[in-house]
Please model this.
Amino acid sequence: KQEVTQIPAALSVPEGENLVLNCSFTDSAIYNLQWFRQDPGKGLTSLLLIQSSQREQTSGRLNASLDKSSGRSTLYIAASQPGDSATYLCAVVPMEYGNKLVFGAGTILRVKS
Amino acid sequence: DAGVIQSPRHEVTEMGQEVTLRCKPISGHDYLFWYRQTMMRGLELLIYFNNNVPIDDSGMPEDRFSAKMPNASFSTLKIQPSEPRDSAVYFCASRSSFTANEQFFGPGTRLTVL
Model:
């Protein structure tokens, strides 16, 4: 059974810092991996999608990498801003299920001004 | 594009009452998913549809839960009778099989069962 773990559970950094959020998954047989952002009381916003054949994706200050063989992904946020404060969720689509997203518990990020 | 639309945004009901949650997927998307989010269990898939047909309902917690998709632009998740442990945020998501398999989520319905 695929399990997704996110470390750390919470992170507090001063504005301007570069930071890395980690995601690990137990079964490397995945179709893709997706990073989401969730603001308090709101829905999920898709940030980046990495297909299993890709190594990384970039969008603005965000860069996500995927090492499928080791079951790891990282989300790198450059020059963090208070507006980046949110919960960041990692999810994979296991080949076993085809369409089902399996989520990690998330990392709560707080960027202090 | 309006994105995935869910209604109501908040629902407060009493134990034993019937609750119906509604979802309108993004136009042209052929997959629709219902998820539930709780503090204890995180985000869990309840059921998903492809071309209006239920494909996997293994995540539906019990017979009190049912979901329908009568057409490509509308789906419902019904709980009857509701119980306090059903209190959670319910999300609907959709995706297209013709793009990168990226799922797009609605704003969610926060359900409180008293």
